[in-house]
Specification:
By secondary structure, the protein is of the alpha/beta class. The protein has 17 helices and 17 strands. It folds into two domains: about 130 residues, Urease, subunit C, domain 1 (Roll), CATH 2.30.40; about 290 residues, TIM Barrel. It binds zinc ion (ZN).
Length: about 475
């Protein structure tokens, strides 16, 4: 009888302790938890506790449950929890040019199609619709942070505020006329205004300078960008060393490589998110390793435009944080980062003639921890641990094609597609639950996209008829 009383007392105390666990807003469960911390293995039966916009615990379910009590939970049967993906280079609004023209080299594609169509169609409304379409696709596929570079960046920032994603948004400036601008002077002034307007305004938005490329912006203007970025403590994002035509241009005009050209202008000494980085020699890689540069590898875009193969394994071996990007949907043609993970893992095996190059865990790190570091957000996102921003996803491995399961990372890299993502959370806000997007209206989006596409379709038909 006495024993029974003591047992009951212990039970009451244990239950009481549980009921008074520390409060959390949300606990997300998963049969598997992949924190993406360096050297961390896949944990079975894991959980992540979130308070506000921050992760307060990530670890074994039993431990998290013992310590935290949440008002809301998301179940994890058959699911993997991992950090949200980081898309280090895209042009969100270009989703409206998806499939407009394919199978051309970079310069023909840009000069004969993209630039003229942009001059004709890109308006604030176009950018609002295109970036909403892109954000829908990224939330659906588990991308939680992206780096954008496109016209009317205020529109993009407002879409990001509304849909809940996290973004580094670059205001473009270029030496010739572009949508809304006569040339360098007004586009550069507007970029400075944009950075000043958005800095410190929303913790999910980092404004940045986005000079287009070394072949479209003069050395004097790139140097002015460096001065402005350093003064504002803002990052720069730019296309760099993308294709042979750029290397030829830089050699002809400046007698050097694209990387050495911009290094001479001080661009490697200020936070630089450098998209592509294909045409690099060994000295360029050494310069990048010493500088504050985050190269972003865009394998699908590079393959589609025939730009070449970035020396990613050599950069990783030099200790450089290399991220992944989709580039715009006009040269990809989607924003599925899982495809970039897989393409990166495969492309570098072909290039090296060696199947051990860029193994699955390293390819996945490029889309998470390394990508976050490459874009300057490595202390906020890309890993699941206490103190980091609560940017995480759940992937469903319950489908028949995911059977059997021996190695979870193998499935994530070599089997998964974007429709397997079922939950997307950014800064503690659930943007998608059970594969249903909560922060955007799909029917409205479809109507807006169709209205924009009808105008572009009519213009293409008129171009072809003339
Ligand atoms: Zn690009």
């Amino acid at each position: 009888m006495k024993n029974l009383k003591i047992t009951a007392l212990v039970l009451v105390l244990a239950l009481g302790a549980h009921a008074h666990g520390e409060p959390a807003d949300l606990i997300v469960y998963g049969d598997y938890l992949l924190s993406m911390e360096p050297g961390a293995n896949v944990l079975q039966d894991g959980a992540v506790a979130i308070r506000g916009n921050t992760i307060v615990a990530a670890g074994p379910r039993q431990q998290v449950d013992a310590q935290y009590q949440a008002s809301r939970t998301i179940p994890g049967a058959g699911r993997v929890i991992l950090p949200g993906l980081v898309n280090g280079h895209t042009h969100t609004s270009m989703t409206l040019f998806r499939g407009m023209v394919d199978d051309l080299d970079l310069m023909t594609w840009l000069q004969d199609y993209v630039f003229p169509m942009e001059a004709r169609f890109v308006t604030p409304e176009f950018v609002r619709t295109g970036s909403t379409l892109a954000c829908w696709e990224m939330i659906r596929g588990g991308t939680t942070t992206f780096v954008d570079m496109y016209f009317y960046p205020d529109q993009i920032a407002e879409v990001v505020q509304r849909c809940g994603l996290r973004a580094v948004i670059g205001a473009p400036h270029i030496d010739f006329p572009s949508p809304g601008f006569k040339g360098w002077d007004d586009s550069f002034a507007a970029a400075q205004d944009f950075v000043a307007r958005w800095q410190g305004r929303d913790p999910r938005i980092t404004p940045a300078f986005a000079p287009h490329a070394p072949y479209t912006v003069s050395p004097e203007h790139l140097a002015a960008t460096v001065v402005a970025a350093q003064k504002a403590h803002a990052p720069i994002t730019m296309h760099l060393a993308e294709a042979p035509a750029e290397s030829d241009y830089v050699r002809e005009h400046f007698d050097t490589t694209p990387v050495k050209h911009v290094a001479g202008l001080g661009m490697l000494d200020t936070p630089l998110i450098a998209a592509h980085m294909v045409q690099l020699d060994a000295d360029d890689i050494a310069l990048v390793a010493k500088g504050s540069v985050g190269p972003i590898h865009n394998p699908t875009s590079n393959m589609k435009l025939g730009a070449g193969i970035s020396p990613v394994p050599a950069m990783l071996a030099a200790g450089i944080n290399v991220g992944l990007g989709t580039d715009g949907a006009a040269s990809n043609n989607d924003l599925d980062l899982w495809e970039e993970i897989r393409m990166a893992a495969l492309l570098h095996k072909v290039a090296a003639g060696d199947p051990t190059v860029l193994p699955a865990p390293e390819a996945l790190a490029m889309a998470t921890r390394l990508g976050a570091a490459a874009i300057g957000l490595g202390n906020q996102v890309g890993q699941l641990k206490p103190g980091m921003q609560a940017d995480l996803i759940q992937v469903d491995l319950g489908k028949v094609r995911h059977q059997p399961r021996y190695d979870i990372v193998s499935h994530l890299v070599y089997v998964l597609d974007s429709t397997d993502v079922v939950t997307t959370i950014v800064a503690g806000q659930v943007l998608m639950e059970d594969a249903r997007i909560l922060s955007l209206d799909e029917a409205q989006l479809r109507a807006d996209v169709e209205a924009s596409a009808a105008k572009i379709r009519a213009a293409l038909a008129a171009t072809e008829a003339s």
